[in-house]
Design goal:
Number of helices: 8
Structural class: mainly beta
Number of strands: 37
Radius of gyration: 31 Å
Strand content: 35-45%
Shape: globular
Distance between the termini: 43 Å
Helix content: 10-25%
Largest sheet: 14 strands, mixed
Length: 631
């Protein structure tokens, strides 16, 4: 039987997102008579793919699947969130390898014991889309990018929050007011990509003003290197001022200062002797333009004998020096808006996104922080932005299966947004889809993923397994509004459709970087959904009744693939052969049966297959014959 090639495994002793867990085979305990049900994708072309699910029942006669039971061979790991996978290989092919049918996480292990029945456990498993939906709301783009690295000792966004963020728990910055001058915590304009105000420092002189101080929970030494950065806007002064600094308990400090002319100087100063152990200065007066600039200093340590220091401005290295290690090797304090107590030199201007690391940052990370604070990666493709957002919530490149997108996107402030919501908006912007594949990876299909392929499966149709929706109004859309982040809101209406079917309106958010792309989105949605089509919404296939040579090909059919249904009864359907996209499916496995219900969407109103125009293609360059508009 086809189900002879089935196995179910659980990674009991591994954390949910472990890359290479140890799997325990529990196939023998699966009550196949109760069925295994797997659902993935969506039921129509307009909705977003939903969380994939897998349900099954396990024999729990010996209590092995009872949570908290010490005698279970899997104790103490029978707990929610354990990873489970369902795999299959063709039992008729001795060289076949195991392929994933579903990978997800067990929601719970409920047990049932009836008076005349054996104990069993009915479990529900959900794919990674569920976990991503529970992830914390995103912070601003600069905050997410700074938090994405390792060895972060403290981070102060200073865009409405004085405290260090929860991911790097430190004491809050404390206001140290001077005798004169003001500090307006919401008075300054910070970086353009975080959507918040920042502290505005207005000292009356180099010695009178206010500063923000904090003590690190653990001192950072030169042993492993270290880094500090900040976003700085200089308001101008007649003498040198310190933007931010690190210091130790003895008075030695790493200072980042701006001269009267606008040049940036980084140095290690012994405030007791007034001498500098090293000094780096920018070759130009970069701060004199009145703009916000990214200033970063990194220190490396080579075997304790040599220390190399780098100064970066706007993500670019501008100066470096090598010297003997500092006389003091550990910094315990952070100062923003001035230097250490013995050398304040109060700063006039705006500061934000001050961060400290206990290791040296790479040039790439330094550059990334600057881009995050200035453009927010405006101009990158949809797949690149999806990969970035996914990485912010712990998804590794190996856990992604992303097509290369065709659409470039602008900056979007992600403050307070859901990670899944942002990624789904990007999929809508592309005209593609976001879901989790059979192996548990985040999957992104670009807009042409499905249009450029051939049918992978042919099914013989009948009245028993084809459901027809003729002139169904549920999918009709004739009034579309597309809102572009940072741009215009576009509205397109099909007046004829409104007259025939009444107004049916939707609103869509796009991350596209041009209004023209927003207009194209609205026009495509009208061209596809303004008028109802006769459609086969689903088709059911019992794989077990088909020749074994077809099993592997049929079970490979997946979301976005094309399927052909032939030999349809023309008396009740307007076509004899129907080609459609697979939008999702539910497969049910049991003794002697493996039934899959495919949820479909039409490719054309006539039910035929076609592709968009392709320049130079002998078949698909024939306008008006073999082509249709595509988005």
């Amino acid at each position: 039987m086809i189900t002879d090639g089935l196995r179910v495994q659980v990674a009991f002793e591994a954390n949910p997102d472990a890359a290479s867990p140890t799997w325990t085979d529990v196939t023998r305990y699966v009550r196949l008579a109760s069925g295994i049900s797997i659902t993935r994708g969506r039921q129509d072309a307009r909705s977003q793919p939903s969380v994939g699910t897998c349900a099954m029942t396990l024999d729990n006669t010996d209590g092995r699947f009872t949570s908290g039971r010490a005698s279970s061979p899997y104790s103490p790991w029978v707990i929610p969130g354990r990873k489970l996978r369902v795999q299959w290989k063709d039992p008729n092919d001795g060289g076949a390898s195991w392929t994933d049918r579903f990978v997800g996480h067990v929601e719970s292990w409920p047990t049932t014991q009836g008076p005349t029945t054996a104990a069993y456990t009915s479990i529900n498993v959900v794919d990674r889309l569920a976990a991503l939906g529970l992830a914390d709301e995103l912070r601003s783009v600069p905050s997410q990018e700074i938090l994405a690295g390792s060895n972060l000792a403290a981070y102060y966004p200073l865009n409405g929050d004085l405290g260090s963020v929860a991911e790097a728990p430190q004491e809050s910055l404390m206001v140290r007011p001077g005798p004169e001058g003001t500090l307006d915590l919401q008075g300054g304009t910070g970086v353009p990509t975080d959507g918040g105000a920042s502290p505005l420092f207005t000292p009356t002189s180099v010695t009178t003003g206010s500063v923000l101080d904090a003590q690190l929970s653990s001192a950072i030494s030169i042993a492993s290197g270290r880094s500090v950065r900040g976003s700085v806007r200089w308001a101008g002064a007649a003498d040198e001022r310190i933007a931010f600094a690190l210091s130790d308990i003895y008075g030695t400090a790493l200072e980042v200062a701006v001269s009267a002319a606008g040049a940036v100087t980084a140095r290690a100063r012994n405030t007791w002797t007034g001498t500098d152990e090293w000094t780096l200065t920018t070759p130009t007066n970069i701060m004199a333009d009145g703009g916000t600039h990214s200033l970063t200093v990194t220190e490396t340590n080579s075997g304790g004998a040599t220390q190399t220091v780098y100064l970066y401005v706007d993500g670019i290295e501008v100066a470096s020096t090598s010297t003997a290690p500092l006389s003091s090797s550990s910094y315990s304090f952070v100062h923003v808006g001035g230097g250490a107590p013995r050398s304040r030199a109060y700063f006039p201007g705006t500061l934000s996104h001050v961060a400290v690391w206990s290791t040296p940052l790479s040039p790439t990370r330094v550059a990334d922080h600057h881009v995050a604070c200035t453009t927010g990666w405006a101009g990158e493709r949809t797949d690149e932005r999806i990969a970035r957002v996914a990485s912010w919530v712990g998804v590794t490149p190996a856990e992604m299966a992303l097509d290369v997108g065709a659409v470039t996107v602008g900056h979007r402030d992600t403050s307070g947004a859901s990670p899944v919501g942002v990624m789904q908006d990007l999929a809508v912007t592309e005209g593609g889809a976001l879901l989790v594949d059979r192996s548990g990876r985040v999957q992104f299909d670009w807009r042409r993923h499905r249009t450029l392929q051939s049918s992978v499966l042919t099914v013989i149709g009948s009245d028993d397994n084809a459901v027809v929706s003729n002139a169904d109004l549920r999918d009709v859309v004739n009034d579309v509004s597309v809102e572009r982040s940072g741009g215009a809101t576009v509205r397109k209406v099909d007046a004829s459709s409104v007259q025939q079917f009444r107004r049916r309106r939707i609103s869509v958010t796009t991350a596209a970087d041009t209004d023209a792309q927003a207009i194209a989105t609205a026009e495509y949605l009208l061209s596809r959904f303004a008028y109802p089509r006769p459609e086969i919404q689903s088709v059911s296939v019992d794989v077990h009744t088909l020749p074994s040579a077809q099993h592997a090909a049929i079970l490979a059919a997946d979301f976005g693939d094309k399927i052909t249904i032939s030999s349809l009864p023309t008396a009740s359907l307007p076509f004899g052969t129907y080609v459609a996209y697979i939008e999702g499916y539910t497969e049910t496995l049991g003794p002697g049966t493996w039934t899959t219900i495919y949820f479909l969407s039409s490719i054309t109103a006539s039910g035929t297959d076609t592709r968009p125009w392709i320049l130079g293609d002998a078949t698909y360059s024939v306008l008006g014959s073999t082509t249709i508009p595509a988005y």
